[in-house]
Amino acid sequence: MPALGNNRRRTSRSLTRGLIAVSTGGAALALPLFGANIASAAQSHPAAEQKAAAGAPAADTAPAAYSVVSGDTLAKIARSHSVEGGWHKLYEDNRQAVGDNPDLIHPGLKLTVGGKGEAKASGASAGRTGADRADRSQRTSTPPAAPAKAATEAAASKTAAPAAQPATYTNDLDGWIKQSLAIMAEHGIPGSYEGIHRNVMRESSGNPTIVNDWDSNAAAGTPSKGLLQVIDPTFQAYHVPGTSMDSFDPVANITAACNYAAHVYGSIDNVNGPY
After folding, report:
1. By CB neighbour count within 10 A (0-12 exposed, 13-18 middle, 19+ buried), where does 112 fall?
2. 67-104 in b/e burial notation, b at 16+ Cβ within 10 A?
3. What is the C-alpha separation between 79 and 26, in angstroms, rounded?
4. Cα angle, residue 43 at apex, residues 37 and 47 outer, rounded to 5°
5. pTM to 2 decimal places
6. Is 186 exposed, middle or buried (0-12, 13-18, 19+ CB in 10 A)?
7. How many Cα atoms are found within 13 Å in the side-chain-facing hemisphere of 20?
8. Which is the most buried residue in 55, 141, 203, 212, by most CB within 10 A?
9. With contact defined as beta carbons under 8 Å apart, do 258 and 268 qualify?
10. What is the pLDDT of residue 5?
């Protein structure tokens, strides 16, 4: 094969980009170079597409799980998590877990905050599939929902029943007993208003801060305390979740005492003397 000179003159800039001269015994064959480039680009396209798809960040709109702590209320949790719709929306999304009384939540209860986010995230991810990209022009031409359907949905939302309001209780013996009864009902603890009131009046005359400092319990270092005169070991053993850990708290004291009475006597209603 004859050698090519280093100072050989180029005939055309565009020609040298697209053609290469190959000697075949004196005859020159002009072969296009751009064919290989096109083939290479076609082969690399799926890989680039997969890389782009793999690198796409997932939507961070999944619902958050929240565990109730002592002192929490639905309103407090809704404010701290900026729940749109406030505690009503939070209660609506967690009604099955909370129960019929949104005012009564106990530590350890698991709530879902922002429950609608997951569905939105899933829809967004589905919209990024290769098949959807291939049919993008068809999706963008989909007509909007019919006005009649939108009007029907709007009317239905206006007639929906309002969320239940949290129960409120007075800060006195009557209110403490009623609130305790509501908590007892949630936990299946038997007892009646009359049975609780009768035993409270005998044990403490309705004074939630009273302490017995003279009986055998006091001599043993565990004096009876509060409305139903509960000693600390009994209060801790029969404490009901969702109430205060302070044995002087009226509602916590009544509820723990009724729980103890249910296990020992069947119900606080069966207690008619020192217990």
Report:
1. middle
2. ebeeebebbebbeeeebeeebbbbbebbeeebeeebbb
3. 87
4. 130
5. 0.44
6. middle
7. 7
8. 203
9. yes
10. 41
Which parts of the chain are beta strand (E)?
Answer: 19-24, 27-32, 64-67, 110-113
Mention every residue, 6+ apart, whose C-beta is less than 8 A from residue 107: 67, 68, 69, 70, 72, 241, 242
Q: Which residues of the chain have pLDDT under 70?
A: 1-62, 115-152, 154-162
Crossing angle between the packed helical segments 173-186 and 193-203, to the nearest 10 degrees: 130
Q: 109: which residues sit within 8 A by CB, 6+ positions away?
A: 67, 68, 97, 98, 242
Residue 79: what residue type? R
Whole-angstrom distance, CA of residue 74 vs CA of residue 41: 58
Residue 170's pLDDT is: 97
- Give 5's DSSP letter: P
What residue has token string 């929240």? 66
